[in-house]
Amino acid sequence: QLFSDWVDADPDFERLAPSAYDAIIKDTKIKSLSSGNGRGLAITYEVAAGPARGRLVFETLNIWHTSPKVAQIASQQLAQRVRAALGVTTLRDTQDLHGKYVHFELSHDGDYNRLKKFAPVEAQPAQAAPVQQSLLQPAPQPQPTAQQVPPWKR
Asked: Fewest CB within a 10 Å sphere: which of 8, 69, 80, 154?
């Protein structure tokens, strides 16, 4: 099993519907796998928009699994999340993921949530979109006010 996704034991708790979500990465931590087959990276996401805003989604990637194949697949999945959140292919510290937005599709697989198709979030909620500056054109320089211009240049 590649994921050890958490499912709430409360029978009144309604699972998130299978859909696409924009979310912020709230937390990451390394934990022992309940199977005893190594350790995994637990990632907590918070849905950032829509009717499910504020709901948490939990995922564990079995990065340090006793099966090399499972560990390899989990490492590839982590790379997808890092590319979507940070735009890079390597990660120095999982703390670098905290506060970053990602887009993913959630589906159900029995009692587990499956997260797939990670992508960057185009416009992050409650934040201005970054301004793209062409590398071929110099950035416009602000014009000095009369008070900023020395008297001999007026």
From this structure: 154
Is pLDDT of 38 > 60?
yes
Q: Give per-residue pLDDT as tens, 80-95.
A: 999 988 888 778 899 9
Please enumerate in sequence order all residues whose Cβ is within 8 A of that of 83, keeping only pairs 6 or more positions apart, or say none. 89, 118
The residues with which 7 forms a beta bridge, in sequence order, are none
Cα-Cα-Cα-Cα torsion 16, 100, 75, 118, nearest 10 degrees, comes to: 50
| Euclidean distance between CA atoms 146 and 30, whole angstroms | 57
Decide: helix, strand or coil at residue 137: coil
Per-residue pLDDT reduced to its tens digit, 109-146:
988 889 999 999 975 555 433 433 333 434 444 555 55
Output the six-digit token pair for 105. 């599709």
pTM of the model as a whole: 0.71
Handedness of CA 113, 119, 120, 123 (dihedral sign): negative
Torsion of CA 124, 128, 133, 139, to 10 degrees: -160
43 with 25: CB under 8 angstroms? yes
